[in-house]
Predict the structure.
Amino acid sequence: MRQSQFVNNIESGLEFVERIGYPVIIRPSFTIGGAGGGIAYNREDLLNTLGRGIYLSPIRQVLIESASSHAPTPSVRVVKPDIMIQVLSSDWQTVQPWGDGNIYRHRSGLRVIVSTADFPDGRDYMHISLSHPDRLPSYDDLKFVKSVFAGDHRYAYQVFPPVDKHISIHPFCLHLWVPLSGELPLPDFTRGGNTI
């Protein structure tokens, strides 16, 4: 019999999974079509899926249960765009495939393209493009899309290249790059504090 427990916060989920081990299945309570659920193979997966599941559950509750010992081995890319459709709320519609990812449309009109790419530096990146048909996305749009597609625990970078290297085919489009294999080194902007 699988071990399972309902939790209402990330701390309780982490404590439970420390006792039973990975992989685990996260099942948010009262979501349509299992939105926000998934399998966590490690702490990073758990933080991402558990946080999203608690957020999407109208009663802020998820069931965590041990996965079968025959669970598949995770791929190098833990977060892949073709898995995202399983964790998106009903506010999102998949418009069409795009390369190795998908184009999504939010009920607000926001359009998002998510794909992954391997680079010569040996890192895997998620590339997220977001646009509105008639205006530039806001900072709140950037935060929302980053949270939905990359999770709140990952870094995402917006790049401002030199003018001669800038390519934009849409006047109202912004881009985020999310390293999927480790973090990029950044200066300590906190100057020894806890926040930026």
